[in-house]
TrEMBL record:
NCBIfam families: folE (TIGR00063), PRK09347.1-2 (NF006825), PRK09347.1-3 (NF006826). This is GTP cyclohydrolase 1. One of its GO terms (cellular component) is cytoplasm. Homopolymer. Zn(2+) binds at residues 94, 97, 165.
């Protein structure tokens, strides 16, 4: 069952399990060696002999998020202003070429009855980033997940990233960055709140 289907208890934190499940690193290493040799890259030299294993472990790391507890607290003081974590480091892998894309995410919300431990914004981002992804889906997944689990008045997610499938190959547009956003609730519907969120993220600065 996907964690997005779980309901948040007002007392007990939700345990979010890292992805994926089982991995066969031995099979991945053999496949990596075959892949390199098929591309004409020999693996017999001392420096390349361990490369298939390193490739397998590297992708296993990129595809595995850490488990965490989604900790929320009562909004006893009725805080109703924007909470924003800016410039959260992001790394993921483009599902079309399996090349990395890296950048930053800006994640904010307008609290409802509960507030979130701030580190959990970065944890939720990692949970969805550590898998083959496209940036548009990743942006929406983080926003939808927070909306479903936190029930805030509004959620905003902006991601700025450089895709190596665009900068290192193909068009080779060095330095090009892609910006995506998802705004929900008040941050989407109220122009003043929307403007405040986008201004505080510093997008386009």
């Amino acid at each position: 069952m996907d964690v997005a289907a779980l309901a948040v208890s007002p007392i007990t934190p939700v345990r979010v399990t890292g992805r994926p499940g089982e991995m066969d690193l031995a099979a991945a290493e053999l496949a990596a060696g075959e892949f390199l040799r098929a591309l004409g890259v020999g693996t017999d030299s001392e420096s390349l002999r361990g490369t298939p294993g390193r490739m397998a472990r590297a992708y296993a790391e990129l595809f595995t998020s850490r488990s965490f507890d989604l900790t929320t607290f009562p909004n006893d003081d009725g805080y109703d202003e924007l909470v924003l974590a800016r410039d959260i480091p992001l790394r993921s892998v483009c599902e079309h070429h399996l090349l990395p894309f890296v950048g930053t995410a800006h994640i904010g919300y307008l609290p409802g009855r509960r507030i979130l431990g701030l580190s959990k914004l970065a944890r939720v981002l990692e949970h969805f980033a550590r898998r083959p992804q496209v940036q548009e889906r990743l942006t929406k997944q983080v926003a939808d997940w927070l909306q479903a689990h936190l029930d805030p008045a509004g959620v905003g997610v902006v991601i700025e990233a450089e895709h190596t499938c665009m900068t290192l190959r193909g068009v080779q547009a060095t330095g090009a960055r892609t910006v995506t956003s998802t705004l929900l609730g008040t941050l989407r519907d109220a122009p003043a709140s929307r403007q405040e969120f986008l201004a505080l993220t510093g997008v386009g600065r």
